[in-house]
Amino acid sequence: MNQEHLLIKALKGEPLERPPVWMMRQAGRYLPEYILLRNKYDFFTRVQTPELACEITLQPVDLIGVDAAILFSDILVIPQAMGLEVQMVENKGPFLPKTISSQKDIDALIVEGAAASLDYVSKAIALTKKELNSRVPLIGFAGAPFTILCYMVEGKGSKAFDKAKQFCFSQPELAHQLLNKITDVTIAYLHEQVNSGADVIQVFDSWSGLLGPEEFKQFSMPYLNKISDSLSARVPVILFPKGSWYAMEELSNSSASAIGLDWCVKPEFARQQTQNKKTLQGNFDPCKLLLPIPQIEQEVKTMIDAFGTNRYIANLGHGILPNIPVEHAKAFVNAVKNYRAL
Ligand code: 1CP
């Protein structure tokens, strides 16, 4: 009974008959049970109330049958903890009324004690671990420093994050000060998540792909490394720098156990670049979950055939979309669970 979970085995590189499966943003708007709670409580109430965060975290485990839980929270709790107001605007996404643009703004950010103010996350993790009762492991997470900088400087979501990139390129010294502060708070926060029971940590660099290879090396990679180096002695770390396919070889020399891939990366390319040193995670195009179920099943088989069952975690290439039918999400997960290596 007390056997190690598939996800942990895959992260350690142990041979497997089938890969573990979970879905980014698996606790979310495609689930009617989530919508019920969404209609009743505002976003940050759901995030900051351990019982609600726990209930939402468990929904995809109970309803879809994924092999891992990921804590219901958001990457923007870090700017909040550092003293910036973050609003979640209905159907629009995050909005930060006060953004970062100067030395004075950076000096005013809270670093010391910032992670401690996120104690509701520790409580949510402890409660979720108890409720999971070892059924599946729990993934904790944070946003990567570059992606958090994007929101702190831009103040909202954006296609190009041009203000944030302009800030980095024109004032690199300030950008590095800001990135270092975010990194310090993030590391303390992630250690707290592990103290509370998180079994694995994923770092989401959702916007790193907006950077070219040289700028990624400058503004993203060093901070991903700093986080991974600090955490990886305690738990396996998954780095997901979305769109940064050009950095695969560098990422394979990091201390992380796994690298997340979006759907633009060929499995063969990723294996060759990482020389099988890392577990790979991904990379089903979330839009393919809108296909008829038999086609989803076929596409899943093709994906696993290409990655192989070892050193592989089946997942989407980015978050699940709100318009995915629940039965299609289940079909994706079941297709992975039914796969068997010959
Ligand atoms: O119910 C709602 O309308 C709120 C939608 C929502 C949800 C379900 C937001 C607002 N955040 C979340 C939860 C969330 N966010 C999780 C929960 C765990 C899970 O089931 O996966 C996670 C891991 C995140 C992480 C997150 N938040 C990222 C990184 C992952 C990614 O998708 O790239 C990012 C970029 C955010 C910012 C954010 N929060 C919410 C939205 C709509 C956004 C994106 C806004 C934008 O496009 O810029």
Distance between the termini: 25 Å
Bound molecules: coproporphyrinogen I
Q: Indicate the CATH architecture.
A: Alpha-Beta Barrel
Spatial extent as radius of gyration: 19 Å
Q: How many helices in DSSP terms?
A: 16
Strand elements, count: 9
> Topology as H/E string?
HHHHEHEEHHEHHHEHHEHEHEHEH
Q: Mean of residue pLDDT?
A: 97
Task: Describe this protein's structure.
It is a single chain. The protein has 16 helices and nine strands. It has a seven-stranded parallel sheet, sandwiched between helices. A two-stranded antiparallel sheet has the order 2-3. It has helices spanning 6-12, 32-40, 43-48, 50-63, 77-81, 103-107, 119-132, 145-154, 162-170, 172-196, 213-219, 221-231, 248-251, 267-274, 293-307, 326-337, and strands spanning 69-70, 87-89, 93-95, 138-143, 200-205, 237-241, 258-260, 279-284, 312-316. It is 47% helix and 11% strand. The chain has one domain (3-337): Alpha-Beta Barrel (TIM Barrel). Helix 14 (267-274) links the parallel strand 7 and strand 8 (279-284). The model has no long low-confidence stretch (mean pLDDT 97). Helix 7 packs parallel to helix 10 (172-196) and helix 15 runs parallel beside helix 16. By secondary structure, the protein is α/β, with parallel strands linked by helices. The radius of gyration is 19 Å and the shape is globular. Coproporphyrinogen I is lined by residues 24-29, 38, 43, 70, 72-76, 88, 93-94, 141, 143, 157, 204, 206, 319.
